[in-house]
TrEMBL record:
Keywords: Transferase. GO terms for molecular function: glycosyltransferase activity. This is Glycosyltransferase. The keyword Iron-sulfur does not apply. Residues 727-876 form the Glycosyl transferase family domain. The keyword Transferase applies. Residues 534-716 form the Glycosyltransferase subfamily 4-like N-terminal domain. It holds the Pfam family Glyco_transf_4. InterPro entries: Glyco_trans_1, Glyco_trans_4-like_N, Glycosyltransferase_grp1.
Length: 917
């Protein structure tokens, strides 16, 4: 079997080797085999130190994000631990913060990260959630208390001390924040003892951006301690002492010692302008040796140090050892204007390292996968330098692709070295950006330069795979089949099988006896709880309410799910009092996309037969898509058991909404054919909305066979509640109109349009904020857009939150826009989230496409606007606060029309129709 004889060490080495190349199929497959050779999470964690040593951490993290062998939670843990080892604590926190802290390992990991960040506010939230005490050492606790007080966070210090169970000094009286008219001496003379300490911290907070006054405060603090007139600094290990020592060292020209003290202060959480000014002084005299590289890199990557700033450029260009620093520049913090000033300075510079600096910077741009902060002038300036690095052409090509200036791409290939290499890089970039048509166009041009490069041929096969061109994919795989071995040979077999399935419908050849039916309804699901998404929530509500109605629901999930290496063929668990079965092959080797689909179907059918012999269901009720449902429906038919096929969406249209070239392709038509095949086999067909029902009828499904059971909501779970105070305080939402989105962050949700409209609204209204809760493939682009539109102070990207906390976020959001685009899948499929919003008594806004028209009555239960019309969306956002009371009407509507306890009764009618027939 695949990977059976390959040792994990060899798989790890093979995967690490692929990180140096943009060859994702090899990366994905080798990583999967390695992860599944043991416990996937443990295997992933074992790779971290090797990856960091090879300096391929970012490529590794991207591969982890693509992995199908890891859960979302496991991916985030691996990302967080990687960033933690790299000392990129902010990145580590963003990876892990949305995971529940109930498990000790997660809590300890979060605590480590927040301690390193010195993020007092987040740390307090974490401790209050866990309520089991801190795992920090006494020394670390005291350091955190000291930092809180020096930064003027006295209330937080008090709360921390209580949670740490550390006795605090009794404070009497009140320290007032300094006013504008008081001198430092006058202010400090008002207080003594602990209050002087508190007053001093307020001064530091006030003058953090004033270098001269801040320096005076540092010297005053040390002098007061030395003179013994007061001891308001309790230890000699604070960043204040580091700053003082650094200043003295600079005066003595001991720049190396000063450098070390500056780094110590930074590590302890200091971020003042004074610290930055001293660093600039030191860099004028002290080179950046290898021992400081990681520390300086962190200063840059956290945004504290801006080396594209004119002051720093002038200093760094005088040092041969400084060129490496430019590989750490944060591209997302650059504007076009700032970049051009930077390049213009390099063009005019006579520095011996200017070309090295440009090349280092080009390398950063080469690896940056989002919108580049460049324009035509940027390239005109770059062309004034004696630059011969082919990375320049790749960067320009990437920019042209992002700007959709496809007609100008030929200029990149007209001359210069490594023309073919540039083609290969841009083929990959277009592929990563999901511009598969462009990737194919470039690949077809490249193949004219080298007609038989196995790597290019393999890329062409991958492009046709994504576009859905089954025959073209197989054609290219045939050309290199003699080079395919082990794991890659399976792909060739899968491609051949897809053609056979496209040409002839799959059947299960086994002849079986009829099975005596019992009383259970066997729900065949693609996935189920504990995974949480719209599909699994609908499934949970259906089986839960069917049980309440006296039916006997039982659940089985598709063959091979969940993905884990060590399983038995039939596993069982109870979830909310309902039997859940899991079907697996030995070692879980037979799964979707791992073996030919025909083999998967056959094995699935065999195992499903054994299950129904055990359960003896009255009805087999299988849900989307055909890969999950078809084997179950065919086995049920042969066993004489009535069946229902529930169409919750058309996955080929979901793919086509993201990949335009997929629409009408071989794979699109094959998937549509098999969806209709399932509808034909089943005794009844359930759909989730009128639009989807009409579409199936147009495709030839008998309308008399179709029943509609729309999405719904449990209004006893989702109901109006008081706003969550902690969330309001955390995201500074007081006295603001809060807009929000909770759900999967995908292209077809229209969030790009929403952010553009929100940016327009911000020009008119200041007291607005947007909360984005969720995760998904479009999140990186959304983060970039927020930065580009300068919305970072008005938009909070929360990430995924535990399902138990979703209602808390619903409570603080006033208005929920759902700006789905006018894609086919959006016109046909109704989402579930708007009903939760309506049940909470909140105002919904939806784009006017058929599926959403089924959910909202304009100006009665919500608002509508033209789909993909940014101005119309902005107008609706602006008017929405005047219509907030519609949220009450929308709740009344869902209670009457979309309550799961009512909707679930529709299934009784569906099942009765089967019995009558």
């Amino acid at each position: 079997m695949e990977g059976k004889l390959v040792k994990p060490q060899l798989l790890a080495k093979g995967f690490l080797f692929t990180l140096s190349y943009h060859y994702y199929p090899a990366q994905n497959r080798l990583l999967r085999l390695y992860l599944e050779s043991g416990k996937p999470l443990n295997r992933g964690l074992q790779l971290i130190s090797k990856v960091i040593k090879s300096k391929k951490s970012e490529v590794f993290i991207e591969a982890i994000r693509r992995s199908i062998s890891l859960s979302d939670k496991e991916k985030r843990i691996i990302q967080a631990r990687t960033y933690l080892q790299l000392e990129l604590y902010e990145y580590a926190w963003n990876s892990i913060k949305s995971i529940s802290s109930t498990e000790s390992d997660i809590f300890i990991l979060k605590e480590k990260i927040l301690f390193q960040m010195r993020d007092i506010d987040e740390y307090l939230i974490l401790l209050k959630e866990k309520k089991e005490g801190s795992s920090l050492t006494l020394e670390e606790k005291q350091e955190l208390l000291l930092f809180a007080s020096l930064k003027g966070k006295w209330e937080q210090r008090h709360d921390l001390a209580l949670l740490f169970k550390i006795e605090e000094i009794n404070q009497t009286g009140e320290v007032l924040y300094p006013n504008e008219n008081q001198s430092i001496d006058q202010y400090l003379k008002l207080y003594s003892g602990i209050h002087k300490y508190q007053a001093f911290s307020y001064l530091m907070q006030k003058y953090e951006l004033n270098v001269d006054v801040y320096k005076e405060l540092i010297q005053l603090a040390i002098k007061v301690n030395d003179d013994n007139t007061s001891s308001f600094l309790p230890t000699s290990s604070t960043f204040i002492h580091d700053l003082y020592a650094a200043e003295n060292a600079i005066c003595k020209n001991d720049y190396l010692f000063a450098f070390n003290k500056i780094i110590d202060a930074f590590e302890k959480g200091e971020r003042s302008l004074y610290l930055k000014s001293m660093l600039l002084k030191v860099l004028k005299h002290q080179g950046t040796g290898a021992q400081h590289q990681q520390k300086i890199a962190r200063m840059i990557q956290t945004g504290f140090l801006d080396i594209v700033n004119t002051d720093f450029i002038d200093v760094l260009l005088k040092q041969e050892s400084s060129a490496f620093l430019f590989q750490y520049v944060k591209v997302e913090q650059l504007t076009i204007e700032k970049f051009n000033v930077f390049i213009e300075g390099l063009v005019k510079s006579t520095s011996s390292i200017r070309i090295k600096v440009i090349e280092a910077f080009l390398n950063v741009l080469y690896h940056y996968d989002y919108q580049l902060p460049l324009d035509n002038k940027s390239f005109e300036l770059l062309e004034e330098t004696p630059l011969k690095n082919p990375l320049y052409k790749v960067v320009k090509g990437k920019w042209l692709i992002d700007e959709n200036k496809i007609d100008e791409l030929d200029s990149v290939f007209n001359s210069g070295r490594k023309k073919y290499w540039v083609y290969m890089q841009l083929i990959d970039y277009a592929f990563e950006k999901e511009k598969y048509g462009l990737s194919l166009m470039l690949a077809n041009k490249a193949v004219k330069i080298r007609s038989f490069d196995p790597i290019l041929i393999r890329k062409l096969a991958s492009i046709h795979h994504r576009i859905g061109n089954l025959r073209d994919k197989l054609t290219y795989l045939k050309k290199i089949r003699f080079l395919l071995f082990g794991a890659f040979r399976a792909e060739y077999k899968i491609a051949k099988d897809e053609i056979l399935l496209y040409e002839k419908l799959w059947t299960w050849d086994r002849q079986i006896e009829k099975i005596d039916v019992g009383t259970e309804i066997l729900h065949v699901l693609n996935k189920s709880l504990p995974e949480v998404n719209g599909y699994t929530i609908r499934s949970k509500e259906i089986v839960h309410h069917q049980k309440n109605l006296g039916l006997e629901p039982v659940v089985v999930t598709k063959y091979g799910w969940p993905t884990k290496p060590r399983v038995t063929s039939l596993e069982h668990e109870m979830i909310d009092g309902i039997d859940h079965y899991r079907l697996h092959s030995p070692k879980n080797r037979i799964r979707l996309n791992i073996v030919p689909l025909s083999d998967y179907f056959s094995q699935y059918a065999d195992e499903f037969l054994e299950l129904i012999r055990k359960v003896k269901p009255k009805i087999v009720h299988a849900a989307s898509n055909f890969q999950n449902a078809l084997p179950a429906l065919i086995v049920a038919k042969k066993a004489g058991i009535p069946s229902v096929y529930e169409v919750r969406g058309l996955w080929q249209d979901s793919t086509a909404s993201k990949i335009p070239e997929f629409d009408g392709s071989d794979r699109y038509l094959m998937q549509q054919k098999y969806e209709l095949y399932c509808c034909e086999i089943a005794d009844r067909v359930v759909v989730i909305g009128d639009s989807l029902a009409a579409h199936l009828v147009n495709l030839g499904v008998n309308p008399g066979k179709i029943d509609i059971v729309p999405n719904g909501v449990d209004t006893s779970v989702f109901y109006p509640q008081e706003k969550n105070v902690e969330i309001i305080q955390k995201y500074k939402l007081e006295h603001k109109t809060v807009y929000g989105f909770i759900g999967s962050i995908t292209k077809y949700e229209g969030l790009n349009d929403l952010l553009y409209a929100f940016a327009l609204l911000k020009k008119e209204k200041n007291n607005i904020h947007f909360l984005l809760i969720g995760d998904g493939p479009a999140l990186p682009q959304i983060r970039e857009q927020v930065a580009t539109l300068k919305l970072t102070n008005n938009v909070s990207i929360v990430g995924r939150v535990p399902h138990t906390e979703v209602k808390d976020f619903y409570s603080v959001i006033d208005i929920f826009p759902f700006p789905r685009i006018n894609a086919k899948v959006c016109r046909l499929v109704t989402p579930l989230k708007p009903f939760e919003v309506m049940a909470m008594g909140k105002l919904v806004m939806v784009s006017n496409i058929p599926a959403l028209n089924e959910m909202v009555i304009h100006e009665e239960t919500g608002l509508m606007f033209n789909a993909e019309d940014i101005q119309a969306l902005k107008r609706c956002l602006s008017l929405a606060p005047e219509y907030k009371e519609l949220g009450i009407a929308s709740r009344e509507w869902v209670v009457k029309n979309r309550e799961w306890s009512i909707l679930s009764k529709l299934y009784i009618d569906v099942y009765k129709k089967i019995e009558r027939n």
